[in-house]
User: Fold this.
Amino acid sequence: MIEVKNLVKYYGDKKAVNNITFSVGEGEILGFLGPNGAGKSTTMNILTGYISMTGGEVRICGIDILDDPIGAKRSIGYLPEQPPLYPEMTVREYLSFVCELKGVSDIKTEIDDIAKKTGLKDVISRRVGNLSKGYKQRTGLAAALVGDPKVLILDEPTVGLDPNQIIEIRELIKELGKEHTVILSSHILQEISAVSDKILIINKGRSVAFDTPENILRSAGAESLEDAFIKLTVKEELR
Amino acid sequence: MKAIFKRELRSYFSSMLGYIFLTMFLALTGILFWLNNISFGVASVKNFFSLLTSWAVFVLPMLTMRLFAEDRKLKTDQLLITAPVSVRSIVLGKFFAAGTMVIGALAVTFIYVIVIAFYGDVNWAETISCYIGFALLCGVVLSIGSFMSALTESQIVAAISTYAILIFTVFLGNIAAAFNGVIQSVLLWLSPVDRYLDFAMGILDPSALVYYISLTLLFLFFTVNVIERRRFS
Assistant:
């Protein structure tokens, strides 16, 4: 579903992403782990076509993102780190705009479905700008779900939420993972280990581990994912 | 493109901006109509439009300052650029929304022409060519405004830099007068306001039409490029 080969991104002289290679199969959830500034958001922005890479190759559902960007974007739903919301619109207006943008034909049914899935029913006619952070996050997630894309890319979907909301969103992601291929980033380790089939740990733009959670623990000789994370990222820093 | 166009148009009215623009534009045209036509009893709209060309620069950037700067500030550009639409259709959708506001406002001013028609003889050729010329001039102004808005994430910077360029172009004719020879011809050739003079005389000069349309397209092209290029930086 998603193939990334030797991805490189320079910001000026700075190498933000350094030769990352990974792939995610259909119906898999990939947890994307790394300290702040490791290049998680940059990688996600490249996968979704928001920014372009300096080198390497990205294929979404077999479509090269450089050859046919619009075709590739059709199969992606993206929730960026800061949900891209228009504060002056109501939730319904906003979702309806996203539906039109993505070319959804039956807008009313689509919005009703997604609002039900993401728990937005009660706030559907409120202005986005007046919503709490949790509901804003859900509205962003709802926008990503519009058009039922095969691939979901979620950048820190639970950041800023309270514990109850975190559990709800986590359940939702698990649920979504049954039908969609999901990449989700976080620096919260429990979250990643709770939902992911595979984990990619990056540090300073470099991939330091890419495997199932169990194998990462085994190869790092660690007892918990937290331990493995520290071992892998600190080891990198000592180099 | 349609989705972007609709959202942009609606957002003019969900913020104060659309109302402020219409109020200022209609107040301005009302005053100019009174001064040029009613108080002197003149039936020609030539002077009305000639004055409007220099005053319109102060209201039009209101429509464009928000277009791209706001999306960058709110990070909603991430939604637009990662959606399955091209940058070109994003830019066109926004440009046409601003254009529709201008056409709407211009349509209201047609009331003045009807008023004139009741009490005097309207020179229709001149009136229509004034309208076409002014609408094309607005197209240039809006595309320059879009370009400036795409360069920054601050609406204020977008508006002020657009004002700066427009004020310069309004005075380009006067600046040209200080020179002579080739420089003068080049400056006059460049000046969008001087190009308008033909329209004011009721002449639909193809070269002026081509000039306005190409200048509009050029700045829209620059706008698309600025946005595309940012993805690679």
